[in-house]
Amino acid sequence: MAAMNNIRNIVILTGAGVSAESGIDTFRSEGGLWEQHRVEDVATPEAFARDPELVLRFYDMRREAIQTKQPNSAHEALARLDAEWPGELLIVTQNVDDLHERAGARRVLHMHGEHLLAWCTACDTRSPWTGTLIDRPPCPACGARALRPDVVWFGEVPYRMDEIMAAVAQADLFVSIGTSGAVYPAAGLVRMASESGAATLELNLERSQGTRWFDEARQGPASELVPAWVDELLST
Ligand SMILES: [Zn+2]
After folding, report:
1. Is the Cα torsion angle 45, 47, 51, 57 positive or negative in sign?
2. How would residue 4 be classed by pLDDT, with cut points 50, 70 and 90?
3. Which residues of 66-94 are buried (b: 16+ CB within 10 A; e: fewer)?
4. Is 92 within 8 Å of 167 (Cβ atoms)?
5. What does the mean pLDDT of the chain come to?
6. 233 C-alpha to ligand 1 centroid (Å)
7. From 23, 74, 101, 224, which residue has the greatest number of CB atoms within 10 Å?
8. 110 an active-site residue?
9. How many Å apart are CA 86 and CA 94, to the nearest integer?
10. Widest CA span of the chain, in angstroms?
């Protein structure tokens, strides 16, 4: 890769492939089903309006499940990079679990929200949440029974895009891990990074239609590729 020794600012985009090896599955796996539910039945604002019980129960299950999972060596390597990298670094994750944080990473931005937050649609407060929402508990801030999962549903706008794009524009290296480079937002971010002069690297289980947008692409499990890449980067 070009000019590895001139790298100071790094933006890393992570997706489902990073958490898959911790046992967290996603819609992107077979047939667009997620634990037997169709995307449009549980992960859209329309679904929540139509059948809030189903949606809340579904997310209660997901919230409970992620608390039983553990970070894998990809999360751990990224946490080590975060701790040791002297320049700017931002981990932008599409994942709504907290495995980056539990591995010890600090510079993490959740563009699709977080399972462990509840969002009050009455007062707009986000509260840490590990329990259930199906029983319509009151908002800790205002008392309204108007909490929903703080997860960006299909058809909703990802969080903090201005901040993400500003970081990408300043990046010397953009790395996409475990997410298809063909799909928004990865496809847009890699092109923006290239146009700003950043080197670009894709680490993914397999080649995707977006692979061609990257300067370099490596294929394999994140638990193997990511620690090897972090070792490489920290030893240059
Ligand atoms: Zn509230």
Report:
1. negative
2. low
3. beeeebbbbbbbbbbbbeebeeebbbbbb
4. yes
5. 92
6. 44
7. 74
8. no
9. 24
10. 55
Q: Give yes or no for a contact between 138 and 145, defined as CB atoms under 8 angstroms apart.
A: yes
d(CA 93, ligand 1 centre) in Å: 26
Tens-digit pLDDT profile for residues 121-159: 999 999 999 999 999 999 999 999 999 999 999 889 999
| Cα dihedral 225, 180, 97, 54 in deg (nearest 10) | -150
Read off the pLDDT band of 53 (50, 70, 90): very high
Cβ(15)–Cβ(90) below 8 Å: no
Which one of the listed residues 75, 100, 110, 112 is annotated catalytic?
112
pLDDT of 39 > 90? The answer is no
Whole-number Å distance, alpha carbon 58 to ligand 1 midpoint, is 22
What is the length of the chain?
A: 236
Q: Which tokens is 202 given?
A: 């894709």
Task: Give the pLDDT confidence of 5-35 residue by residue, as tens digits.
Answer: 689 999 999 999 999 999 987 655 545 556 6
Q: If you ran DSSP here, which 8-state letter would residue 43 be given?
A: S
User: With the C-alpha atoms ordered 39, 58, 159, 229, is the resulting torsion angle positive or negative?
Assistant: negative
CA 181–ligand 1 middle distance (angstroms): 37
With residue 97 as reference, give the H or E element that holds it.
none
Angle separating helix axes 222-235 and 73-84, nearest 10 degrees? 20
The pLDDT tens digits of the residues spanning 171-202 come to 999 999 999 766 677 789 999 999 999 999 99
Give Cα 45 distance to the centre of its chain.
20
